[in-house]
């Protein structure tokens, strides 16, 4: 990911933002944070945005707020896909709840994946992994079972579902990360919660600020997790190009789908092309190391999202005995190909040529 080049597009605006924040004398909260929250709320089509220090905090704070409001209990069982980044698991642990991972039958959670556990859990976290939105059927099924759904939207900024609704507006509350490599990335850490529920938003905001009601009174045990005003200003600059960038990413993805002919390099199902922000373009290759070396020898840098699933990590020893064959296979075989808005037509063609010659 050519982060320097992607950010260079905002050089002038960022310099102005830096000068404005510097001169303002206001370095926590303030107008730039409020402005970005308003802009991101309008963009996502939700009533409320609560900005946070990072995506993990955003997800954790949603669960902590639900606990404080009595909507979820300590030790609540939270269903989530086994195939995700470890942060989804950690948010549940940090909120004092229990992760209930389920295997995925494809790449993201489906209704079938939920069925065996839905009666045993209190809530669900969906994950829009690689930028692809979890299907509307999952939300409808969970609603019919009266289970609240929260979304880990850390990779799906701007993705739109079949009803024209954006990522961030599909669950009871959603969590975004603005880590620099994300489709909407800051120049450091950042995160946000999006929701239509004003009570949940107010509680999350309070918990993100020590649980305080006013300067000297605290009515809950909160944490400190705030979006920096500089990052907020940088994010406002970048939000203006997000749709254009996502369109560019989707054109790259479509081109790959149309031109890959190599059976050894397996793409996601063609449905993956829809409702996707293409944070990552994943392919699945049985001899991953060899393939990555070959791509590198041909001047193409690849990545892996991710090599070892959370339930097999040392950090989650208590889950190490669980077996999720599809998740494990995805983690063993996934390779992320270049897919960003600055790829030139000749670079895209070269990726296709090199992949097809493998
Ligand atoms: C799926 C997913 N969830 C959560 C996170 C956590 O975000 P952050 O790094 O901002 O804490 C990330 C990003 O790293 C992610 O990719």
Automatic annotation (TrEMBL):
Keywords: Pyridoxal phosphate
Gene3D superfamilies, per the entry: Aspartate Aminotransferase, domain 1 (3.90.1150.10), Type I PLP-dependent aspartate aminotransferase-like (Major domain) (3.40.640.10)
Pfam families: DegT_DnrJ_EryC1 (PF01041)
Family (UniProt): Belongs to the DegT/DnrJ/EryC1 family.
Name of the featured protein: dTDP-4-amino-4,6-dideoxygalactose transaminase
Species assigned in the record: Nonlabens ulvanivorans (Persicivirga ulvanivorans)
Lineage: Bacteria, Pseudomonadati, Bacteroidota, Flavobacteriia, Flavobacteriales
């Amino acid at each position: 990911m050519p982060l320097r080049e992607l950010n260079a597009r905002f050089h002038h605006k960022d310099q102005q933002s830096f000068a404005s924040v510097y001169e303002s004398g206001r370095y926590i909260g303030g107008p730039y944070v409020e402005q970005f929250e308003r802009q991101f709320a309008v963009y996502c089509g939700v009533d409320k945005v609560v900005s946070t220090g990072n995506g993990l905090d955003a997800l954790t704070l949603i669960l902590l707020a639900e606990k404080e409001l009595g909507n979820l209990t300590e030790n609540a069982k939270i269903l989530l896909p086994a195939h995700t980044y470890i942060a989804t698991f950690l948010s549940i642990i940090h909120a004092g709840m229990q992760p209930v991972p389920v295997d995925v039958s494809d790449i993201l959670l489906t209704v079938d994946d939920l069925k065996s556990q839905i009666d045993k859990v209190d809530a669900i976290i969906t994950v829009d992994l690689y930028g692809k939105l979890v299907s509307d059927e999952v939300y409808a099924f969970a609603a019919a079972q009266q289970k609240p759904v929260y979304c880990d939207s850390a990779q799906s900024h701007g993705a739109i579902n079949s009803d024209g609704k954006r990522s961030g507006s599909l669950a009871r509350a959603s969590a975004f990360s603005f880590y620099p490599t994300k489709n909407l990335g800051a120049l450091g850490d950042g995160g946000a919660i999006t929701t239509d529920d004003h009570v949940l938003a107010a509680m999350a905001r309070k918990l993100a600020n020590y649980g305080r009601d006013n300067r000297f009174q605290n009515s809950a045990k909160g944490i400190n997790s705030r979006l920096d005003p500089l990052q907020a200003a940088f994010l406002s600059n970048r939000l203006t190009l997000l749709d254009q960038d996502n369109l560019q990413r989707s054109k790259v993805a479509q081109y790959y789908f149309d031109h890959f002919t190599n059976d050894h390099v397996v793409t996601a199902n063609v449905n993956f092309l829809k409702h996707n922000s293409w944070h990552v373009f994943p392919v699945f290759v049985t001899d991953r190391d060899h393939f990555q070396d070959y791509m590198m020898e041909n001047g193409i840098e690849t990545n892996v999202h991710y090599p070892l699933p959370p339930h097999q990590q040392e950090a989650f020893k208590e889950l190490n005995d669980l077996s999720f064959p599809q998740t494990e296979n995805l983690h063993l075989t996934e390779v992320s190909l270049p897919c960003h808005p600055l790829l030139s037509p000749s670079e895209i063609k070269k990726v296709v040529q090199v992949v097809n010659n493998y």
